[in-house]
Request: fold
Amino acid sequence: MSYPGYPPTGYPPFPGYPPAGQESSFPPPGQYPYPSGFPPVGGGAYPPAPSSGYPGAGGYLAPGGYPAPGGYPGAPPPGGAPSYPGVPPGQGFGTPPGGAGFSGYPQPPSQSYGGSPAQVPLPGGFPGGQMPSQYPGGQTPYPSQPAAMTQGTQGTVRPAANFDAMRDAEILRKAMKGFGTDEQAIVDVVANRSNDQRQKIKAAFKTMYGKDLIKDLKSELSGNMEELILALFMPPTYYDAWSLRNAMKGAGTQERVLIEILCTRTNQEIREIVRCYQSEFGRDLEKDIRSDTSGHFERLLVSMCQGNRDENQNVNHQLAQEDAQRLYQAGEGRLGTDESCFNMILATRSFPQLKATVEAYSRVANRDLLSSVAREFSGNVESGLKTILQCALNRPAFFAERLYYSMKGAGTDDSTLVRIVVTRSEIDLVQIKQTFSQMYQKTLGTMIASDTSGDYRKLLLAIVGQ
Reply:
């Protein structure tokens, strides 16, 4: 597996998706407001309320008059959110995935993906095969997101406290020295550090030993474990750019990788990926897409490459109604399909706006927009358009479904499994796990455990927080 050099300065981690319903446009990077009404970073309870409000009687009133722990309407109780599986105790929702340890990198905002998207049942599995329209207990395939989940999203991997890059570099050196390799020591370090911290370990390793940590790891590891470790040590933007390059080089194209990355990232992420692709591989991403794809699918991906989607979070219901009418006239309401109309609306509107359009469409057309896309399109362009709509409705559910199909049936699509677990580990993997359990009546950890083995399984489970 080729592993070209890293960007000279790291790329910022995923900046996250702006909160739906916020009455302002997407703030510039590094200026995301910390959500109010949540425990401080690191979880834990709210500031203790003094036993008395008088200075002489045991304490002053807490600033801003905090109610007693647990007294915030709509907020999870102080110990986190026990009703959802996979949330570590002591961490309330809304803690930014970066935490305090992301020095010098923009802090991702608290993310929100809209309220209850289950109004629209999804036809057809993604990828491959049909999903049943009903799950046991009468659930629809895309469950609604619990109220607490929409307050913010969480990664399962957080920066380690008391981080010491040189000490970690030394542990990794010892784990690889001599006969055999101490994989457990490698798992313990790698799974419990943020991507930013892993970049610092890599730099410390070279400073201390004059050797490239990645080359050393590659010589000690192989197969899926090697792919997973290398993915964890790539800066996020570089990993996305590398995955796109890998999907297009050589014979054949992995279209699903192009769809998964280009149709789900924010404008800022896409622009960073385009720049990184040029600087690292000396190639123009848009040109590569044009030479590897064709027709309406090519146009959709070129639109995605621009990173120009509207990111204003306010929903214009009049426009949603007009767009729904336009989409109906372009598809179900005529013979043939006006593909450019679908491309224009799905490539330019914000995700909250698209969610409102999906809801308006079901009133206009008496059927949901996803099933109309399935009737009017086929192949990769159908998958791409559906991915955009699925992200507008419930982004964690889209990734949960991709994970499920990477492991379902004979064999495992390890590259997809590794890519999603790694890229979402500091963004919304907690929500993806919860949604996965709702959709498939089994936990993501259980499925990973039964589909993988050895140190590869150990490391995946450690990242997923199992």
